[in-house]
From TrEMBL:
Keywords: Cytoplasmic vesicle, Repeat. One of its GO terms (cellular component) is acrosomal vesicle. Its main location: cytoplasm. Assembles a suppression complex (suppresome) by tethering SIRT1 and MDM2 to regulate composite modifications of p53/TP53. Confers both deacetylation-mediated functional inactivation, by SIRT1, and ubiquitination-dependent degradation, by MDM2, of p53/TP53, promoting a proliferative and cell survival behaviors. May play a role in the regulation of spermatogenesis. It is found in: Cytoplasmic vesicle, Secretory vesicle, Acrosome. It holds the Pfam family MORN. This is MORN repeat-containing protein 3. The keyword Aminoacyl-tRNA synthetase does not apply. It comes from Pipistrellus kuhlii.
């Protein structure tokens, strides 16, 4: 008895189109409706893996790691410099959930005199804000601040002259030296005070950050070109 075979049913065209539209793996350039562009890896229709995003409105470029549609991992953010006709690095470091998190370097303002585009911050981030130990190079004025940040505010640390003779806009006078009998111990105490203010109190509320303790009486001034700032009474201007 002859056996008849039915030809396989062809799937509707829309299913084939939908399969082709699903973005997984490495893709060439993908354009968004607003003109943004992305080249890189995808997973379940989301940017995932290595990729480069270009935002049309400001021309900003991000090159680095992605995780489920957000910048996550290590990456570099750059913006166009209209005067020089090329891109200027703004941030290079770690990201989490589309925000700066972990160790990274933030660059401030273009300056032809310096190879790394002027002032910069090197240190730790959390939630897109400076949080933890770090260094801020005020290369335009020839100064360096090394200390501890909480939510973008420098809480304690040391300020020194750094490349002041080569700075394009140096401060009017060198920083006089302030000597401390036990500088490391005093700085550690100030840092512990800053961290303690962020800890929950016995009542379950955070300690007030406005509480100020007097600077130890072990400070005495001299005429050298360096200073140690033990506890800041106002944020460092950037």
């Amino acid at each position: 008895m002859p056996i008849s075979k039915c030809p396989p049913k062809s799937q509707p065209p829309w299913k084939e189109w939908d399969q082709k539209a699903q973005k997984n793996g490495l893709r060439h350039q993908v354009h968004a409706v607003n003109g943004d562009r992305y080249v890189g890896e995808w997973k379940d229709n989301m940017k995932h893996g290595k990729g480069t995003q270009i935002w049309k409105k400001k021309g900003t470029i991000y090159e680095g790691d992605w995780k489920f549609g957000k910048r996550d991992g290590y990456g570099t953010l750059s913006r166009p410099d209209k005067e020089k006709g090329k891109y200027r690095k703004v941030y290079s470091g770690w990201w989490k959930g589309d925000k700066k998190s972990g160790y990274g370097i933030q660059f401030y303002g273009p300056n032809e005199y310096y190879e790394e585009n002027g002032n910069r911050y090197e240190g730790y981030w959390q939630g897109g804000l400076k949080n933890g130990p770090g260094r801020f190079f005020h290369l335009d004025h020839g100064q360096l601040f090394e200390g501890f940040w909480v939510d973008n505010i420098a809480k304690c640390g040391t300020m020194t002259d750094f490349g002041r003779d080569e700075a394009p806009e140096p401060t009017q006078f060198p920083i006089p030296q302030v000597e401390v009998v036990d500088p490391d111990g005093v700085l550690e105490e100030a840092l512990a005070m800053v961290k303690k203010k962020d800890e929950p109190s016995e009542a379950g509320t955070k300690r007030s950050r406005r509480t100020r303790r007097p600077i130890p009486e072990t400070l005495r001034a001299s005429g050298e070109n360096q200073v140690r700032i033990i506890q800041l009474l106002k944020p460092v201007e950037e």
